[in-house]
Amino acid sequence: MVVALLVVAPIIALDVSPYKADGSLWYLGMLPVLMGLFVSRRVAFAAAGLTPVIVGISLLLKDLPPIVGALYMLVLGAATGLSARRGWHVMMSFAAPLAALALIGTMHVSLPSERVESASTLGSILATMVVLLAGGLWTAVLGPFVISKVHVSAPAAIPERTSWYFAASMGGLVGVASFVALTWLPPNSWWIVLTMYVVVQPYYADAVKRVTERVIGTLVGATAAGIVVYLLHGQPAVLAGLALVLTLVAAWANLKLPYWAFVMFLTLAVVLQTSGTIRDLEWAIIDRAGYTVVGAVLAIIVLSVGHAYLGRHPHPAAPPRFAAG
């Protein structure tokens, strides 16, 4: 219990200080590490170092032509798919969307003088990376003492051939979606990319199941967040603590409970931690719900077409029953 309190203490302290934006960044840096801990401590430390790097690159690419950012997201999507051969895709599915947030959406960082957009200067980019790294390392060092009390199995490794299909699907979807978002859509459209990262799975049947559960979990979690913020909007420390508890519950639910429960807990946690005023929260709920539906529908259409094609053109080396399955 003492270690668990130490894990969450920096975010609560930042949230009640003038550096609330850094509290949100610290929290985002924790998420990939927390999922990496369910694989191994080595993967958690890898996530702590990887997350600020890919976010920093996104911030540097923000003002370049959209095709550059889209190609970068394509590479990250393909890397997520290929990492499934080691069972690292769950961690990557939390790290890579943060790159989409930095590239397509808007990140803020609190400097000693003021709160600014993370991409505004080289100094703000470095400050953002430092806070993400600090949050990740803090969680990687202390988190194992908490996670060891939660008895769950690590994500299974995926066969090589399946990981290649997974990489092609993920890379293609997030690359095209990122280009469209960067060219024609507002910043909050990064949620389309986030939805694709969590809906697209190595196996088609799992992806189909996740589409419905993703939409339901998001709507329930976002609505619950609206109620909680309305009741507790004057108590930022309580909201921060509740968000962190819900994040730990979501990480456990991701491996133990139905997917909709994980989405519900995580949506509630993220909206509580990253939203500002009640008015901001109302728009966050509307945007999150709308873009989640768009991302889920696009993903399942593309995956269904690919699944139908592979069913008619099985791999020559695969037995007929395996190919049909």
Briefly, what is this?
The protein is mostly helical. It is built from 13 helices and two strands.
Q: What general form does the structure show?
A: globular
- Please compute the radius of gyration using only Cα atoms: 19 Å
Number of helices: 13
- Largest sheet features: 2 strands, antiparallel
The topology string of helices and strands comes to: HHHHHEEHHHHHHHH
Q: How much β-strand is present in the residues? A: under 5%
Provide the residue-averaged pLDDT.
84
DSSP helix fraction: over 70%
First-last Cα distance? 46 Å
Strands of the widest sheet, in order across it, are 1-2
Give unreliable regions as ranges.
Answer: 318-325
Computed structural class: mainly alpha
Write down how many β-strands occur, each being a DSSP E stretch of 2 or more residues.
2
Features:
325 residues, 2% strand, mainly alpha, globular, two-stranded antiparallel ribbon
Detailed description of the structure:
The structure is a single chain. The chain is mainly alpha-helical and 325 residues long. The chain is built from 13 helices and 2 strands, in the order αααααββαααααααα. It has helices at 2-15, 20-37, 41-61, 66-82, 89-104, 122-147, 160-184, 190-199, 204-232, 236-256, 259-274, 278-312, 320-324; strands at 108-110, 115-117. The chain has a two-stranded antiparallel sheet. A hairpin with a 4-residue loop joins strand 1 (108-110) and strand 2. Helix 1 crosses helix 10, helix 2 runs antiparallel to helix 5 and helix 9 (204-232) packs antiparallel against helix 12 (278-312). The N and C termini lie far apart (46 Å).
